[in-house]
Every structure is written in C-alpha cells, then in structure tokens.
Task: structure prediction
Amino acid sequence: MIDIDNLRKKALSEIKKADTLKKIKELEKRYIGKDGKVSDIFKKIPQAGKEKRAKLGKEANKLKGELEEKLKNKRLKLEKCEKEEKVESFDPTLPGKKPDLGSLHPLTTARKELTDIFVGMGFSVIQGPDMETGWYNFDALNFPKDHPARDMQDTLFVKGEKEKVMRTHTSPVQIRHMEENDPPIKVVVPGRVYRNETTDASHEINFYQLEGLMIDKDISVSNFKSVITQFVNEYFDGDVNVRLRPSFFPFTEPSFEVDMSCSVCDGSGCSVCSQTGWLEVLGAGMVHPNVIKNSGLNPEKWQGFAFGMGMDRLVMIKYGIDDVRLFYSGELRFLEQF
Ligand code: DAH
Result:
C-alpha cells in the first residue's frame, strides 16, 4: 500500500537526471512540496495498522530529510554551473558602449576658424574688456553726445559703476590698441558684445563680434576689399563675390555695408537671401580721423580701415541655422550636430 522504497528509488533517479534549476524546482514541488508525494504518505499513515504506524512515520521522516538534502545539494550545484556559464558567455570581442563625449561649441570653433584666416593674412589676435567706459565704447569712437545708441534701450549700463557699460560692440578695442601700439597695425578682435534688446530669431542680448583694424601709411578701400574678399572665400569655401554699399558709422568715413553673394543659391535668389542673391555680412569703413586722433595717433600720417562682423550670423549662414537663440540654449540636440 505505501511503498517508501520504490518512491525513494524513483525520486533519487529523477534528482540525479535533473540538469536544470527549473527541473529541480519541479521535483521539489512534486516530492517535498505541500501537496507532494511525501506529504501524501504522511496523510495515509493514520489509516495503516497500529503496529505499522510508528515504523512508517519514522521511514517517511527519514525519506523527507534525505530528499530535502539531495535536492538542496543538486540545486546549489546547478546554481553554481549557471553562474559560471554566464561568466563564460561574456564576449570580450563585442564592441563596447561609447561613452558620451563633449564637443566644442560651434561659436568656439568659428572663432578659431575665423581668426585663423586673418592670422594667415598676417593679422594678430587681440582682446579687450567686456565692461567698458562710455569713453571707449562711444566718445572715442566719434559718437555724438546725443547718439541714440547711448540710450538705455540699446545699452546695458552697469549698476553702481559710474559711466560703465557692457560693451555694445568690439570697436572700443581699436582705441585701446592704437593707444598702446604704433602702426603698422593689423589686428582682429573676437569678443562678446551686449545689447539691451528684445530677443527673437535674429536678436540676442549678447552675441559675438569679430572686429578688424589695419592702420598704416597708404591703406585704401581696395586693400580692404581684397582682404575681405579673401576672407569670405576662405570661410565659405568657394567662389563668393563681395560688394560694398554706402552706409554710415560715426567711427568711419566713408562707411559701407559689405554684402557677399549668397552661399546657399550662388546668387540666383532664395529664401535665405530674400531673393536678392546677396547677404549682408559686415560693417566697415576707413577709420575716421577723429578716431585716430582720439587714440593718440596723427591722422595726417596714419590711415586705415576697420570692420566688424557678427560671428553668430556668419555661422548661421554657413550652416543654415535659422535662430540665433539656439547658440545660447544649451540644447544638446542642437549642439551635438557640430
Ligand atoms: N561696431 C559696429 C556694430 O556693432 C560694426 C562695425 C562697423 C565695426 C563698421 C567697424 C566698422 O569697425 O568699421 O554694428
């Protein structure tokens, strides 16, 4: 009726054959689980004859202990094997996960590219302070006392600092450099500038300019045109035409706006150049005699040209970027493209 020996034989052989943890779990359930075969024996013992009960109970307990022990040992053995298998399945030849690397900001790259072009033409790269006096930012540059650019609307004045402003352009560095250096002068000045403006796709309260200054004895507009034509052709990698249009700046006379033929449509007209074929890239002119005089040099002896361009704008044209605010957004999806 209750064949403990047979049950033991069957269980041991099955445990021996079991080769996965899943099978061991099944066997645990089948033999020593709550409704398993060993429990069945315990349930049947009360029905056995009085003299057999004690013996059966003893044997059933012994079987239970024995099976528990064997199952436990086998389980530990299989667990160890599976762990080892996992370690062995690590493939050291698989390509690794690429760590995220930072990259230079597009304006940082542009500053280097742009100044490198001028260095190639014999210019030096210099810098000046972001916070300026009214004298350097306006007066020395021949701005009349009532010029609207001095108005609170355009200029950020520094609180508590009498007469101090955040420079609205890089032109004050022209004065600082001429004060300290005798001509011939050939410099470019990359730097951040500040305007009290409402921001939109083409205006930011700060952006970057690249200023240029060349002073010597016989400098003319044709020197300027050749330097700037060389420059745009190097930066835009191609056959770009340059034209000058008359304009006005207090610090130059004559003054011009410089256009280059649109690098997107090659001058045939597109949405980037508003169908004109031309893109405005910089302001320039022959340095006003008052500016040379205000820097401590003799305007009878020295003359030259100056120019100023928006670096953000050049980068926008080069890469087809339609919103200047992207440069300052910290937006990785934008920055990662450079
Ligand atoms: N300072 C001017 C601006 O911020 C740009 C400029 C125009 C600079 C003509 C110059 C220049 O040196 O000659 O808009």
In short: Residues 169, 171, 211, 249, 252, 283-285, 306-308 surround 3,4-dihydroxyphenylalanine (CB under 6 Å).
